[in-house]
Design a protein that fits this description.
Length: about 280
């Protein structure tokens, strides 16, 4: 079993490779993990192309939802994107917050930060900033953000509870988040759960939906709302890399589900921390 640090290195290595891949490769795989499928064009991500601020160069096809569409961003807001990749959600957020707002993207992978900064420079965006860092310990001060967004990233983080504590710290009182992520219903087969490639591909790092929502509640957030939910169907030509025979049949016929959810929650307007909000 990999340690948290080993899992982080898996993610950093894989997403450094993904930064150089074509979008079509990422869209036909598990969050770009490389387990490509010939059966479908797009396994997880939703279509961004109609959203204002969309930039094709920043869209690597790695998401599993459209959190910025649901994020209730207002003019002048400070927005933080966790796991900002090449900058796609940051640029869409900028179109909402306007020139008077600020958008900060945080990503663990140097290659992604380099790509995002190049995209921002090309677009002439001076109020969009990208910082390399770990979202378990964000390189930003407390009570800074009006809105936090994230797209298919927390599932990659070993300490999800730590990330929600950081989100609580960084949001202003009364601020909120909208996060798209991968969650489970039922237990994954051991081969999927343990495989490093599937971890980097968003699936085996996912946790149970009820556990995910409970983490949000226990960390002091209020008005928790499921904004969107959709099933994720992994094609046979990917599953065949991990399962065979009866195990594959049982998995497809069983009660295990893999879902993309977009969830919204608020930090209370006046609260000293999770304990005083219970």
């Amino acid at each position: 079993m990999e340690t948290p640090e080993q899992l982080k290195e898996i993610v950093k290595k894989k997403y450094s490779e993904i930064a150089l891949q074509e979008k079509e490769v990422n869209q036909s795989s598990c969050c770009g993990s490389g387990c490509c499928s010939d059966e479908v064009y797009n396994i997880m991500s939703d279509d961004y192309t109609d959203l204002q601020g969309y930039n094709p160069d920043a869209d690597l096809g790695l998401g599993c939802g459209l959190p910025t569409q649901f994020a209730k961003i207002k003019k002048g807001d400070t927005v933080i994107d966790l796991g900002s990749g090449a900058g796609n959600d940051c640029f869409i957020a900028r179109s909402e917050t306007g020139e008077d707002g600020k958008v900060i993207g945080i990503d663990f992978t140097p290659a992604m930060i380099e790509k995002a900064r190049a995209n921002a420079n090309k677009l002439g965006y001076h109020n969009v900033e990208f910082r390399q860092g770990d979202i378990e310990k964000m390189p930003v001060t407390a009570d800074l953000a009006d809105v936090i967004v994230s797209n298919c990233v927390l599932n990659l983080v070993p300490d999800k509870d730590g990330v929600f504590k950081e989100i609580f710290r960084v949001l202003k009182p009364g601020g909120h988040f909208s996060i798209s992520d991968i969650v489970l219903a039922g237990n994954l087969p051991e081969a999927l759960r343990k495989d490093a490639e599937m971890y980097a591909g968003c699936v085996s790092g996912a946790i149970q939906k009820e556990v995910y929502l409970e983490l949000i509640n226990t960390n002091g957030f209020v008005n928790v709302t499921l904004q969107k939910e959709k099933p994720i169907i992994i094609p046979d030509d990917i599953l065949n890399n991990y399962l065979e025979g009866e195990e594959l049949t049982n998995f497809k016929a069983g009660n295990t589900g893999i879902f993309s959810i977009t969830v919204y929650a608020e930090k209370p307007k006046s609260c000293c921390g999770p304990d005083c909000c219970n």
